[in-house]
Amino acid sequence: MERLCKTTRIVTVNGQFPGPTLEVKNGDSLVIKVVNGVKYNATIHWHGVRQMRNGWADGPAYVTQCPIKYGESYTYRFNIEDQEGTLFWHAHSPWMRSTVYGAIVIRPKGNSPYPFPKPDTEALVILGEWWIKEFIEMAEKALDSGAAPDFSDALLINGQPGDLFNCSSKGMLAYSSKLMVFLLSEFEIYLKIRQNTQNINVIRAAAGETVLLRFINAAIVTHQFVAIAGHPMTVVAVDASYTKPFTTPYLMLGAGQTADVLIHTNQPGGRYYIAAHAYRSGSPLIPIDNSTATAILDYDPIFPPLPASDDHDAVAAFNAGLKSPARVNIPAPVDQHLFITLALGLLNCPPGKLCGGLLGNRDSSSMNNISFVLPTKQSLLQAANYGQSDVFSADFPEIPPAKFDYTGNNSDPSLFRPIRATKIYRLKYGSVVQVVLQGTSILSVEEHPIHIHGYDFYVLAMGKGNYEEERDSAKFNLVDPPRRSTVGVPAGGWAAIRFRADNPGVWFVHCHMDFHLEWGMMTAFLVENGAGEMESTLPPPADLPRC
Ligand code: C2O
Ligand code: CU
C-alpha cells in the first residue's frame, strides 16, 4: 500500500476532509451558503433531511435544482423537523461526493434528553473511501465509457486508513464544527498514514463511560461491516430515527446509511481497534476494496471479530435486529402499491465510441427496466413547478410483482437491456404508498442501498429470492418496524417499505452506490397535493441557480 502515500487533488469544503460537521438541534433552521470555487458543477445534498415542502433545498443536481456553477453560489435554507440522530451532507453531482461530505449531528430539541441513558462522551465515526486517482478521472471513466470504475484504494475512518497500512507519515486534518459557509475548493492532500501506535485517529474515552458513537457510511460504493474490539454496540438510532435499543457485535452500513450506537468502556483499560471492511454483496468475481480501515478506541488494541466480507447472514441478522423504540402507527390501508426491480444491465456502445463495459458495452443499471437519464436543461422540481412538460414524463412503468423470476439465471432477459428515459412516478399527496424493491440477479447479485429523498419510511420486511405477496406480506412487521431513509435491499432479495406521501415535491429515489446511480438506477417521486401540481411547496428561492 506504499502507493497510497501520494499527493492527490481533491475537492472538499472549507479545506477540510471530511468536511465540517453541522451541529444542530431538532427544530433548528439552517442557512448554508454554498460557494462553488471549483471548475466543476456542484450541489450539496443534506442526506436524510426530510425537507418538508422544501425540495428547493434538497440538492441533487438536475433533480431539485440546476447545479451551482464555478464562481456562483446558492443558499440552502431548511429546517430540521422531528429528526434526531446522525445524518450527513454530500455533494450530489457525479462522483464529487467521494471527498465532499461531512456529518450532520442532530441533538434533541431545547434541553430535552436523549431517549436512552445519557452518554458521557460523543464521537463521530465517518466511513469513507480513498482513490489515488482524481475524482474527475473516475467520473469520466464510469460515465463516458460505461465501465465500472476502479474500486477505491483504501477505506477510511474519519479521513484516514489507520495503521494497518505501512507507509509512514502523520495523520490528517480533523473535522471541526459550526462553519456555515461552504466554500468548495480544490486542494492537494497527501494521504498520510501513521505507523506507530500514536495513531491520530483515536477516539478517547474514560473508563466506565457511556459513549455515543455516530457512525456514517459516506462511502460512495462500499457497504461496510464495522466493529469495535471487546465492545458490543447498542444501536439507538438509524438515519436519524430512534430504534429500540439493539445490541450487536458489529454494524452493517450500506453506502448512505447511518447508525447511532452506545458503548460502555467497561473493559480493562487500553487501546481497542475500531475496524471496518467491505461487505461484498455481489459476486466474488467483482473486485472490491478489500482493505481494512482502522481507528483506535483508547484501550489496548484487540482486533474485533468482524463478519466475513461475504457473510450475507450477518447482514440479515443485523437488519432483523433493528426496530422502532415502541409500537408505531403504520400508515394504512395502502393506496398505492409499487413494485420496483433493481437491475444491472448493458447498453449498446454509441457508434464511434470505445466502451469499457462488459463485452464492449456500456454497463448500465435500471429500475423497472428504465435506465434513468437526468435532464440537463432543467431540474425535475423546477420543471414540475413551472409546468414545463418537456423535461420528464410521469409514466414510470409498473411491473406486477409475480411477472418474472428474479433469482438464479431465470431473470427476464428484457430487463437486461434497459431503456434510457426520464420517467418519474406520480404519487398522490397524502396517499399511503407501499413499495416492494426487488433485487434481481441480472449480471450480478448485489445489495442496493436505496435512498429516498424527502422521506423516511418503515421497513416492513426483507427476504431472499422473489417477493411473493401472499407469503411475504404475512411476515410484515406492522408493530415496530425501523424507520429509515436508506434501505439495503438484500443481495438477490427484496425489501418492502411503507410511507405516507406527505411531502409534496419531486424527490429523488436511487441506489446510493455511486456508479449504480450514474448508470441509471434512479427515478423520482412526484408528489402533488391533489389540488393540482406543486402549489403546496414553498416558492422557489430567488437565488435558485438556472441550468
Ligand atoms: Cu445521499 Cu441522493 O443521496
Ligand atoms: Cu446499487
From TrEMBL:
Q: What is this protein called?
A: laccase
Broad class of where this protein is predominantly found: secreted
Task: Tell me its cofactors.
Answer: Cu cation
Q: Which UniProt keywords apply?
A: Apoplast, Copper, Lignin degradation, Metal-binding, Oxidoreductase, Repeat, Secreted
| Entry keyword annotation includes Oxidoreductase | yes
Q: Which family does it belong to?
A: Belongs to the multicopper oxidase family.
Q: Which Enzyme Commission number(s) are listed?
A: 1.10.3.2
Report the residue ranges that make up the Plastocyanin-like domain in this protein.
3-109, 124-300, 396-530
GO cellular component term of the entry, any: apoplast
Native organism:
Platanthera zijinensis
Subcellular localization, per the record? Secreted, Extracellular space, Apoplast
Listed under catalytic activity are:
4 hydroquinone + O2 = 4 benzosemiquinone + 2 H2O
Q: Which PANTHER family does this UniProt record tie to the protein?
A: LACCASE, MULTI-COPPER OXIDASE
Q: Name one GO molecular function term.
A: hydroquinone:oxygen oxidoreductase activity
Task: Tell me the Pfam families matching this sequence.
Answer: Cu-oxidase (PF00394), Cu-oxidase_2 (PF07731), Cu-oxidase_3 (PF07732)
Q: Give me any GO biological process, just one.
A: lignin catabolic process
Q: What does this protein do?
A: Lignin degradation and detoxification of lignin-derived products.
Q: By its UniProt entry, which InterPro entries does this protein fall under? A: Cu-oxidase-like_N (IPR011707), Cu-oxidase_2nd (IPR001117), Cu-oxidase_C (IPR011706), Cu-oxidase_fam (IPR045087), Cu_oxidase_CS (IPR033138), Cu_oxidase_Cu_BS (IPR002355), Cupredoxin (IPR008972), CuRO_1_LCC (IPR034288)
